[in-house]
Design brief:
The complex is a heterodimer.
Chain A: E1 5-7, E2 10-12, H1 26-61, H2 82-112, H3 116-131, H4 134-148, H5 155-179, H6 183-191, H7 196-225, H8 228-231, H9 253-260, H10 266-300
Antiparallel strand pairs in A: 1-2
Helix pairs in contact in A: 1-10, 2-5, 2-7, 2-9, 3-5, 4-5, 5-7, 6-7, 7-10, 9-10
Chain B: H1 21-31, H2 33-69, E1 79-80, E2 89-91, E3 94-96, E4 101-102, H3 105-136, H4 139-154, H5 157-183, H6 203-227, H7 231-239, H8 244-255, H9 257-273, H10 276-281, H11 300-311, H12 318-349
Antiparallel strand pairs in B: 1-4, 2-3
Classes of the chains: A mainly alpha, B mainly alpha.
Chain lengths: 304, 359
């Protein structure tokens, strides 16, 4: 914030420090510079790991990059990542449909109807679910879906576990976005005689769309990057995924990073770095997309 | 010109009598609140149902292991799968291989220690960065830092693990750790910081990688709380002649103290449950405590992901049940941290914490 004001004793706020007689107060000045100095170091400590990490991935992946990585499937000693890329996209699409539907509907309920104790209960359950470690979800998915229901390693098991992980994010984002829609919008829709569904679909959801989309993109970015819940639900396969929901394992990018980096074969080690690069690029795409959504839609909305 | 009275308004809610049952159902669906309410309520119950189902499956699966391992589970340091060649035996009605005995102490210690290092690193850095972003830096740079944190929050944990084990860990253990490990005095407590340094993996590397991973959630929450500090007390501080650092330290920070504690505990909960990155950087010790702060170790989460495959070799399924018990312990620890943080912040600051990863 910018609140520099000039006082009789010199500039307040922005300047280091003066004593009552307008002379520099060295102790306060030292605290000022030490304080903001360490805050700037903290900013650097946030920035350095990201740059280092991105550089580490790029420096390892780019020298060994072949474009055929995108078109070939993985083999026992190398090959490409086509099956993992298709599998990841398949999983993301499935999560978008399953978790997207449940999450958005759930967010609508929380924003429009859930009042009092029931609302608190449902919201807390959602928050608590988001706090459960993903490996625990993966373990439960393995026990309940892969073994007990005998689905084996499969797309359906992976989608259900990932949806349990991501529904809370989508629901929370939807609820927050719906709550920010100004009340006169709804009242206007009611006054025109619109039915509840039409009012929701034509007015409220439209106004809340940027927030909902951002939440959905966060959830999709999470499902691109998760490993632990997928290892024992989606399994892994070297071949391209089929569209079978059960009894067919699916390959995905994070598995390639997790397993191949200490493979004895140079070809597979390279795949590990390539997969990490593709993952980072995908995440950046999601971030840029959500920024674009917010930016484009905010340009035309009224400020209130 | 036709005048329309209210009851002649051609609105589709009054489109005449429904002609058939299909139309009746459609009209009920589109025009009654009950339909919308019912369908969305069904979806809203899903998280609650999932939560109950998860805990029920864990409890059901872990019950025999709980009975056999007993309370000593929490204090033992064993990891003995038992003999898979001898015939399985039954103790208290629980089928298990001969000599099977599991203890969680090293993994609980590893989980808590690595998360503690993470929090000790991430919290000061996050507070400093949030203060600079909100109170000092120009908006353009603040936005840049915001994007950095968003990227940091989005990077998959497996990529953090790859960076930790191939780049950061080796640098730390070759260039930095020996300085401490060779020069700390060999006296109680301090001797924990000296001794053998493994190459790239271990408690300190994993803790710092975890610290970097939880920075976004702590920093973003702190930043949002700082932005909610009202303007008047801050202006009052300036009017008293404070400079902007004194204002930030003596007005803004105390104002959001509870929120910072809540954000830190939220970060802690995330560090406790983090799996893949720790599994790659920890060195995967099973039944041994870390010998020093550089030593290899294991956490509950990383052990579950690494032992699940192997546990299938236990024909009695006892190791799988023990992993369920581990999952239960981990779920209880993280849930306690999560719920505690949220209650604290809601009670004191009146705002809600973000779900999960922040940003």
């Amino acid at each position: 914030m910018n609140m520099a004001a000039t006082t009789p004793l010199g500039p307040a706020g922005d300047g280091p420090a003066l004593d009552l007689y307008g002379r520099p107060d060295w102790r306060r000045r030292a605290a000022y510079f030490a304080g903001w100095g360490s805050c700037l170091i903290a900013v650097a400590l946030v920035a350095i790991p990201i740059v280092w990490l991105l550089w580490g991935v790029i420096a390892r992946a780019v020298p060994v990059w072949r474009w055929s990585v995108l078109t070939e499937s993985t083999t026992a000693t190398g090959g490409g990542l086509a099956n993992e890329i298709v599998g990841t996209l398949l999983i993301v699409a499935g999560v978008a449909i399953l978790a997207g539907t449940i999450g958005i509907l759930s967010g609508i309920y929380l924003a429009e109807y859930a009042k009092g104790a029931i609302g608190t209960l449902l919201r807390s359950a959602s928050e608590v679910l988001a706090g459960i470690p993903s490996i625990v979800l993966g373990y439960v998915g393995y026990i309940a879906l892969v073994i007990a229901l005998y689905w084996q390693y499969s797309l359906a098991a992976a989608l259900i576990v990932l949806s349990a992980l991501t529904v809370p994010y989508i629901a929370k984002a939807t609820e927050a976005a719906l709550r920010q829609v100004p009340t006169p919008y709804r009242e206007g829709a009611d006054a025109l005689g619109m039915s509840p569904l039409r009012s929701l679909g034509r007015i409220t959801i439209k106004a809340a769309l940027p927030g909902i989309t951002t939440g959905l993109l966060v959830a999709l970015a999470i499902s691109v990057g998760e490993t632990a819940p997928l290892l024992y639900t989606a399994g892994f396969t070297n071949s391209l995924p089929t569209l079978h929901l059960t009894h067919a394992p699916v390959g995905y990018l994070t598995y390639a990073v997790w397993t191949f980096y200490n493979s004895p074969f140079k070809g597979q080690q390279d795949l590990s770095f390539d997969a990490a690069l593709i993952l980072v690029v995908l995440v950046l795409v999601f971030i840029v997309a959500s920024r674009l959504v917010v930016g484009l839609t905010q340009r035309n909305t009224e400020k209130n | 010109m036709t005048l329309t009275t209210p009851d002649q308004v051609p609105v589709d809610t009054m489109g005449g009598r429904p002609r058939n049952s299909l139309q009746r159902v459609w009209r009920w669906f589109t025009q009654e609140t009950a339909a919308l309410r019912g369908i969305t309520a069904l979806a809203a119950i899903v998280p609650l149902a999932a939560l109950v189902a998860i805990l029920a499956v864990l409890a059901f699966k872990a019950a025999p292991a709980l009975r056999y391992n007993g309370f000593g589970f929490l204090t033992r340091t064993d990891w003995r799968p038992g003999s898979t060649y001898a015939n399985a035996v039954k103790t208290d009605g629980v089928l298990h291989p001969v000599g099977a005995l599991y203890g969680a102490l090293p993994l609980i210690v590893g989980t808590l220690a690595s998360s503690a290092i993470a929090v000790l690193f991430a919290v000061p850095v996050s507070i400093g960065a949030a203060l600079a972003v909100v109170e000092k830096l120009p908006p353009r740079i603040s936005n840049g830092v915001g994007i950095f944190m968003e990227v940091l929050a989005g990077i998959p944990s497996v990529v953090f693990g790859l960076w930790g084990i191939l780049t950061f860990g080796p640098w730390l253990s070759r260039d930095i750790d020996p300085i401490f490990a060779n020069h700390f005095p060999d006296v109680p407590v301090l001797s924990f910081f000296r001794g053998y340094v493994p190459d790239g993996e271990g408690l300190l590397s994993a803790g710092l990688v975890l610290g970097v991973m939880i920075i976004p959630i702590v920093a973003a929450t702190t930043r949002d709380l700082l932005r909610q500090v009202p303007r008047l007390p801050k202006e009052g501080a300036l009017a008293l002649g404070m400079n902007d650092f004194e204002m930030a330290r003596k007005v803004s920070l105390p104002w959001i103290r509870a929120g910072i504690i809540g954000a830190s505990v939220l970060g802690l909960a995330r560090a406790l449950g983090e799996t893949i990155a720790v599994a790659m950087v920890s060195g995967s010790a099973l039944a041994t405590m870390p010998v020093n702060i550089f030593g290899t170790f294991g956490t509950i989460a990383s052990t579950i992901v690494q032992q699940l495959d192997g546990s299938l070799g236990d024909g009695t399924g006892f190791e799988l049940r023990t992993l369920a018990e581990f999952s239960l312990v981990l779920a209880v620890i993280t849930l306690a941290a999560n719920v505690g943080a949220r209650l604290l912040v809601r009670r004191v600051a009146g705002t809600a914490l973000p779900v999960g990863r922040g940003v």
